[in-house]
Amino acid sequence: MTTEQSPALDNLLTESRSFPPSPEFAAAANATADWYTEADADREAFWAKQAERLHWDTTWTQVVDWSDAPFAKWFVGGKLNVAYNCVDRHVEAGHGDQTAIHWVGEPGDTRDITYAQLKDDVSKAANALTSLGVTAGDRVAIQLQMIPEAIVAMLACARIGALHNVVFGGFSPSALRQRVDDAEAKVVVTSDGQYRRGKAAPMKANVDEALEGAASVEKLIVVRRTGSDLEGDVPWVEGRDVWWDELVEAQSADHEPEAFDSEHPLYILYTSGTTGKPKGILHTSGGYLTQAAYTHNAVFDHKPGEDVYWCTADIGWVTGHSYIVYGPLANRATQVVYEGTPNTPHEGRHWEIIQNYKVSIYYTAPTLIRTFMKWGAEIPAGYDLSSLRLLGSVGEPINPEAWMWFREHIGSGNCPIVDTWWQTETGAIMISPLPGVTHAKPGSAQQPLPGISAKVVDDAGTPVGNGGGGYLVLDKPWPAMLRGIWGDDQRFKDTYWSRFSDQGYYFAGDGAKYDNDGDIWLLGRVDDVMNVSGHRISTTEVESALVSHPTVAEAAVVGASDATTGQGIVAFVILRGDAAQAGDEAIQDLRNHVAKEIGPIAKPRQIMVVPELPKTRSGKIMRRLLRDVAENREVGDVTTLADSTVMDQISKGLSSGS
Ligand code: 6R9
Questions:
Q1: What's the rounded Cα separation, in Å, for the pair 223 and 145?
Q2: Cα(424) to centroid of ligand 1, in Å?
Q3: How much distance in Å is there from the Cα of 319 to the middle of ligand 1?
Q4: Which three-class secondary structure state does DSSP give residue 210?
Q5: Of 109, 291, 304, 634, which is least surrounded by CB within 10 A?
Q6: Per CATH, the architecture of 533-654 is what?
Q7: What does the entry list as the binding residues for Mg(2+) (predicted)?
Q8: Mean pLDDT, the chain, whole residue set
């Protein structure tokens, strides 16, 4: 009998490429290697220093109070106004004329908004909300596309101490209703319609359906966006509905920001997770803004007044909260905000925007990078991307091949790439290379940022050694950490703190490993880990092996129950244009390629060629739906899919024998 315990996660792929920062970049970088030593020597002093990036009306008396763990308090006793920090103070410091937002509408209309204008807009919107009876602590739900009013509405809430609860523009009436009810939102903000792939589609009609009989909602504010481009009248509920422009324009641009406690709630953002009702993740003010500002400065090497920053996320995702609204604006960024899809009206739209606005920092998601790869490198090659000096990625593990493509075809081979690991729950970036310091490795998020502590542990909670795989945990509190799940303290404890309760670790739900240098590699959600003949295999490693084959554009793998091996690996792949009609031989070739790259144990039992993969609005592959297909079950809940027809396309393609 063997006494050797099998590892929590096998380590299969190895990567030997590494890219040091250029001496020029390193010389001018915001972050230095000393930050690690400084933070290790005295974490609290380090965070206290980061909090000085903000304006505090009252200084805190204690950096962190962890006595009621897992409920943290940061910068105890401090008072600040988050919106003042993101807007007014820059105007007061003489930067009112600096562009805060270069907004680009999908149809081609544009708006440039300075910090001075933003201050007026936010002040008016704050007065408008107050006029509707919204007070500190109330909840305001926002379902808007990427238009400036989305940012203004969020900041207006922050300014008066109301919590925003942003819901993705494309979410169904029932998904919106669930979030409005759970948060008991008093006011909802939406628009008449939205432009999607060149067409105006109704938005308010959806919201009306969602709000039918919603007990908490008193007012619905409607931003005019599509106007007469939208067919038919905008339905109107007298007494409840009010146009944004009529309401907000009538307000004074003077508004005195009130200082709120550092722990005053800032927002709720719902994460769907795989099962159960969505969790309302609660974030508060001082610690959240401190870490958002610190990470935006350190990880993106952002230089106010010089850089043009673009984060392509949607405001409905936490990335839009921390890296479009709070971090960049607290740091006086000039940023691009784009309303539309990346292929409207053509597949070079992002590159055209980068060229026009001389974007220098570009932060996007692996799903989009893989899509750009599929469209072909000749598209970005047609634009001048020489303004770019740093690239970032978030949302999923970035496959080494996608990383290399990003570096070569978008970053001209000389931009540092930051692969940033974090979650809605962590509020801000936790694990990432430090540009100018770290020798970057394609596919690895590498190290916890200075001030952050993370570990990879085994089933018993003991850290694994280099080369070992297991579970990612966060073993020390951090300023932007969630303060709970809205209305459900028990679920908060059960979900994140019970798995390693002996050690008091936060369990992130992700698998990870250390490589031989001690760098961290994220390996996907542990719920998705496949167990093949006792080997615990991560989805990420098999997918990366598939994507490294020249014919594969995208891949998703799942473990499907298997009579002999426990689970068998079933792969769903999207092939590149010219390979799309792959026959049996090509499929065999792919299976062998995986076996060669990472070993025979990971060879997929079956590979299915599909036209699309099911993804959430933030671009994450929903493997549980693919597992339903692989195990011949009826497909489960699809309400949070970006495109609800994808599962039909997949099933249809498979039953017609592809
Ligand atoms: C910011 C965000 C969180 C989950 C997280 C992990 C995955 C995010 C990643 C990554 C590998 C990265 N994830 N960034 N995995 N490398 N750089 O995405 O928040 O939507 O809450 O998702 O996304 O699985 O646990 P959220």
A1: 10
A2: 8
A3: 10
A4: helix
A5: 634
A6: 2-Layer Sandwich (3.30)
A7: 547, 549, 552
A8: 94
Instruction: Confirm or reject: Cβ of 84 under 6 Å from ligand 1.
Output: no
> Would you say 202 is a known binding-site residue?
no
Q: 194 CB less than 6 Å from ligand 1?
A: no
Angle of helix 539-547 versus helix 584-598 axis, rounded to 10 = 120
Residue 638's pLDDT band, with cuts at 50, 70 and 90, is confident
pLDDT, one tens digit per residue, over 305-354 is: 999 999 999 999 999 999 999 999 999 999 999 999 999 999 999 999 99
Q: Whose CA is nearest to atom 16 of ligand 1?
A: 397
User: Alpha-carbon distance 455 to 526, whole Å?
Assistant: 15
Residue 212 marked ligand-binding: no
Question: Ligand 1 centroid to 274 CA: how many Å?
Answer: 14
d(CA 593, ligand 1 centre) in Å: 27
Q: Where in the chain is the domain with CATH 3.30.300.30?
A: 533-654
For residue 279, the cross-strand partners are 271
Is the per-residue pLDDT at 637 higher than 90? no
Across 258-285, average pLDDT: 91
Helix-then-strand count for the chain, H and E: 22, 30
Q: Which atom of ligand 1 is nearest to the CA of 432?
A: 17
Query: Does residue 12 surpass a pLDDT of 50?
Result: yes
Residues 221-243 have a mean pLDDT of 95
pTM, whole model, 2 decimals? 0.95
Tokens of 398: 């970035």
Q: Looking at domain 35-510, which CATH architecture does it have?
A: 3-Layer(aba) Sandwich (3.40)
Q: Is the CB of 288 under 6 A from ligand 1?
A: no
Nearest protein CA to atom 11 of ligand 1, as residue: 397
**CATH 3.40.50.12780 domain residues, the chain:** 35-510
Closest ligand 1 atom number to CA of residue 422: 1
533 is in an annotated binding site: yes
Residue 184 has pLDDT above 90, yes or no: yes
- How far is it, in rounded angstroms, from Cα 61 to Cα 74? 10
The whole-number pLDDT of residue 606 equals 95
Q: Which residue has the higher pLDDT, 171 or 317?
A: 317
Q: For residue 365, how far is its CA from the centre of ligand 1 (angstroms)?
A: 10
Q: Residue 57 CA to chain centroid, in angstroms? A: 31
Q: Following DSSP, what letter does each residue of 303-336 receive, concatenated?
A: -TTT-EEEE---TTSHHHIIIIIIHHHHTT-EEE
Cα of 382 vs centre of ligand 1, distance in Å, is 31
Query: Mean pLDDT across the stretch 228-251?
Result: 95
